[in-house]
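Q: Sequence in, structure out?
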Amino acid sequence: MAESAGFMSLLTAVWAACGKALRVIVYAMAIVSGLSVLAIMLVTCADVILRLRWINRPFVGAYDIVKILGALSLATALPYTTAVKGHVAIEYFFHKLNRRGRVAVDSVMRLLTMALFAFLAWRSVLYGLDFRRTGQVSQTLQFPVFWVLYVIGLCCAIVVLVVGHSLLHPDREMIKP
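A: Exactly. Output:
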């Protein structure tokens, strides 16, 4: 009996550590997202200032940088937005259901969401591998872009974990906004 209690306490500790690690990853991705938006603003402002008549030298590669940072900011914001349940939801019909119906619909939607994001993660990594194999680069700077798809795939995989956590804990957000 003591072995069973020891195993359960170990399992509980591992589960808590995994939840904490997932929160840290989600927060780190949120910081990356915020820094990406800040960098987009700085690059855009620099490009506008450098295009003024008395300087007349546009920021070379600004479009490439903003495009890459835009993709990164969107992808890295997804796990945090999912963790705080910040997505737009239409709940009018949902609240018309009884508790059992809401739990069933919510569970099915979470499972479908996990399947969708797992598929997106898988396809993003495959697409990134294809970009790496073909040597795909950005238009102006000729900067390799395969890694952006790897990041998008990682973010989609983290969303799967966050939705899985929400499926196991349906009454609360993983992270308080």
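The mean pLDDT is 90.
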